[in-house]
Every structure is written in structure tokens, then in C-alpha cells.
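hey so i finally got around to running the thing on that chain from the lab meeting. sorry it took forever, my laptop kept dying and i had to restart like 3 times. anyway pasting the input first so we r on the same page abt which one it is
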Amino acid sequence: MWEYTCLFRRKYRHNFVIVFLLGLCVSLFSHCASLPSESWKSNLHEKSKLAIYLRISSADQEKMSFMLTSVQLVCVDGTQVIFPVEEKLKVYSDQRQILIEESILAGNYQKIGFLFSEAALLASGSTLPIRVPEKYTYLEHPFLVTAGDTNIYLELDVGYKKRGDLETDLLFWSRLSRGKRSSGLKSLMLYVTNTGDNTVTVIDRLTNSIISVIQVGIEPKGIIVDPDGQYVYIANYGSNSVSMIDTMTNEPEDSIALPLGFGPTALAIDPEGRYLYTANTDSDTVSVIDTDLKRSINTFRVGHKPIDLKVSPMGKFLYVANKGSNNLYIFKVKESKVDREVSIPVRSQPWGIAVISNNWQQDQLLVANFGSSTLSSFTIDSANLNPDTIQKTLSIIQSEYGPTQIVSDKSGRRIYVTNQKDNSASSFINTFPQKGAKAFISAQEKLYRVGSKPIGIAHDEERNYLYIVNSGDESLSVIDLRQEIVIDTIKVGKQPYGVALIKK
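ok and heres what got predicted. didnt touch it at all, straight out
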């Protein structure tokens, strides 16, 4: 297994905050140590342009400036790449600029460093010099530069402190951590995978109009948006890969190969957005992708024909529905490590699953059983996970409905299910389990008639809309849950499958 552990410092309270947005836009290959895939060697010695974008902001009104002398990238074998900058930066400015545009060889980079000089504070009409340390400020941030584009965003906290009793004896300090970028297309985008023409349809939820069609891998199925709304990930069933779409541009950014995973069907991501999991239906496995490194770092066995999977809201467990073996696997996860804990039998052909966190101690796991037209509910005690502590309830939907995918609203009080055999979607009232009691799912509350063979489903919490992908007639049904009616039907690509939306 090839993996790294990165430590990031999230937020600090300081006098000055500088946000460095580093876009590392690359299309190349590397001389740096131990490239992880033999198939990339044909691209050896290729170069691409590295662009570092800088935006400065500060919560404090004091004026401070300093010189950024150079930026250093360090490969895993210790090789250093240094880019001279010699750019004077002002904390109180609010501008975006390109610091460097250079060509760089691809490879596995371990950390990034900044070197500063000539810092000064402008106070009371005079300029006070600030002493600057001679060493680099580093961030241990492993990232992989490949033939595809790589984007990295960093935050730099800076300030000054007194040395001794003198008011004018000041020392410059800096602290580098990973940051987030703002996304230009975020708030109302919706994405639909189309297995029949290898595309993703992008829809503006405000106007219900198609704004883009993006070519991805072969037979795209599962789709998910990362927690920050920066990237959309697509499981390409036919090409054994995962495509990445940048939500800033709605352009494909990279493709991640799954060398040991065949027929990826569904995706799940941890709450931090670091690890992506793929359910590989044809190889009975799950693959773990490091989204920073953009590569598969682990693959492990599950049941027969895994069809869906979810990470618990607290990021502690991974739940996998195995359609072929009629059971669920529960794994305990910690970073990239995965340990199987429990196997639970369910009704015929489990398909979609949803997880609701009732509190810090319990998860409610909901399962749509396609073959038996039932919903299963399991109460998972995260502090004492074993088969004896798992409580189960079963709800009958309706004979021959064939439920496929399932979602809940943010509160967990409403559950929505697509019924493939009945060309409908159902809503249910969910009651959280109380101490010593089981969870309870009401009888069907509402039935919505949609298109042919509905499968994918997504809930817009803010607008209270439900989106249903109809694979049989290549459409997307839009349901207004306040009015309880279907308000629009949008034609999409061939044989649509999955749907995901960006949440504000």
C-alpha cells in the first residue's frame, strides 16, 4: 500500500490572515521517486506549466508587508524544486495575482515551503521593520502531479510578535496549512450521469435548464459531490475509473484508474473529503482513493455484487450493501485503514442505503430492498458495535414496487425512495430510535408518479425539491415537496443513472 499521512492545521486566531490560493495546473510526468503506476511511464520527462495564484485578505486593518522570496516543492526522494518569486506582498490589499508560471516535471511531492524576507509594519505614519526567520515555512502536504491537472489550495497565517521589551523589536512568524477555494458555479448546479452516451448532464436548478454536457469515462453510474462543493466524482462502470469534474469550470479535471476494482457502481466520501470509496460490483471489492494524491491506495473484499455504500456522518463507519449476497458489511474506518466489523443479513436484493446520525452514539441505517419491496432500518451503536446490539425494523412498501435508491432530509424525519417497478417515488415519516426502543418508519405517506424506471434520487434541502432520474425514458423529474406535485420533467442523456447536487 502506498499512502501518506498529512497533518493540516485548520484555523487559527491571529492578527493577520493571508489566504494563498495555489492552483497547480499541471499536465506532465515525473523524475521524482517511485511513481505509483507503470502505465504512466510513457509520459516520463513530459512537462507542464505550474501556476500559483495568490489572493490576500486580512481581518485586521493594520498595514503589513513582506517579501515572498521563493516557493519550494520537495519530492518524496528529497529532490527540491525552487521557484524564485521576489514579490512584495501587502496584507491589507485585496487582489488576486499570479506569482509564478513555470514548467515542472511530474512526480510525487511531499511538502511545500515558502521563504520570506523584509517584513515591515506601517504604524502611526512610520514603518517598523520586522525580523524574518531565515528558514522555510513548510506544509507536509503530499500531492501527485500526473498528466492530468492538479489543484492545490493553501492558507498562510502571518503576524508579528515582540522580542524583549522594545516596542520596535518585532519578529515575523508564519504558519502554512491547506485551505479551500471559492467555487464559481457552486450553489444551484445538479449533475446527472448518463451510462448510454458516457456523459454527465449539468442542470441549473434555478431555471431547470441544461447548461453543459460533459464527456467522462465509459458507462458512468454513481456520482457524488465532495463536502466543499469543489469537485464532482463519477464512477465509470465500463472503464474501471473515476472521473473528476471541477465545479469552478464544469470541466473534467482528471481520471483516476482502479487497477483492482472492476465495474465501479457507487461512490461514498468521508466528511473531510479526503478519502473516496468505490463499490466495485464486478470484482466484489471496495477501493479507497486518496483525493489529494488522486490515486487508488487500497482495495479490499466485500460481499457479492456490492451496489451501494455510505460513510457515517461522523466518519467512523463505512456501510456496504451487497445485492448478490443479501447482506450488509459494516467497516470501521480510520483515515485510509479499513477493518471489517459486522455482517448483517437483509431481505432480497438490497440496493440503496442511507445513514442518519441520531446523535454522537448512534447511526440509523436505512436500506431499500429491491427484491422484496421492503425498507430495513438498523440502529447502530457506535460505542458497542456487534450483531447483538444492532436493532432492526422492517417496513413493507407495497407489493412489486422494487425500491432502488433512498435519501432522507437533513433532519432525518422524512425518507424518500425511488420505486423502479412502479414508476414512482414514495415518502415516509421516520421516527428516531429512543433509548431501549427501535426506530419506526411509518406506512407510505405520499406516492409521486414520475417517469419510467426511476433509479437515482437527490434532495434539495434548501428549496425542498426532490430530483428523480428516470432511466427508462431518459428524463429527470422535479418534485416540489411543498406543493406535493411534479413541477417539471427535463430530458437528459441516454440511460441516465445517478444524480448529485451541490449543497450551499
